[in-house]
Amino acid sequence: MSPRKAAVLRGGEQSLREHLIATAERLMAERGASGLTVRVIAREARVADGVLYNHFADKEELLACALRARVNAVERGLGDLPEPGAGTIEAGLRAWIAYGMAMHAGILPVIAGLIGQPEVLARFAEQPASAADWRDRLLAYLTAERDLGRLAPDARVEAAARMIVGVCHESVMSTMVFGPAAPVRRPTDDELDDLVAAVLHGLGA
Question: Which residues form the HTH tetR-type domain (predicted)?
Fold first, then answer.
């Protein structure tokens, strides 16, 4: 271990690899991922540029690891989701939607900065996630509620899940299109209630 590397980590339990990932993840959260270079990360981590290549095959691997860390950090901060059968179906569905919107607001702006780096996103997709995808968990929740008889036996839960995911995407689409300077639109409580009502009761007369 070089003296400079030892100074960076002195007094902590992180490995240098973990330190570099944490630094890149913090920069993604603070500045977005666009323009995030090896030099910028190395300076923030207080190591020489070449040190990164002792722990990662290339910049893309480091950014993919940092993106996974960002996703995990966002989800850890959102709390637990309701279990099937707990409380009212309206309250449970509202909590799932609010969770999804907050998660997308925290993650998609970072991913937007990586659209021009498809290799990073491909590496990210190859990594094992810490938990099942939120959309898959939402679909499992709706399916379980249907099996419990709290939704109609012929409820089209797949379509409902796609509709909810679409609303979550729409809430941050301006950031994806116009960049981090565009404000993330956060739905009001009334809009959340309207979506829950549309999912549960449909649009028919």
Answer: 14-74
Residue 116 has pLDDT above 50, yes or no: yes
Give CA–CA dist 23/86, Å, rounded. Answer: 39
C-alpha distances in angstroms, 125 versus 43, 51, 71, 89? 27, 25, 12, 32
Structural domains of the chain, ranges and CATH numbers in brackets:
59-201 (1.10.357.10)
| Both structure tokens of 86 | 């707990």
| Residue 54 vs residues 41, 59, 68, 198: alpha-carbon distances, Å | 14, 11, 20, 53
State both tokens at 88.
């009212």
Question: How far apart (Å, rounded) are the C-alpha atoms in residues 170 and 22?
Answer: 29
- Amino acid identity of residue 5, one-letter, is K
pLDDT bracket for residue 199 (50, 70, 90): confident
Between 68 and 201, whose confidence is greater? 68
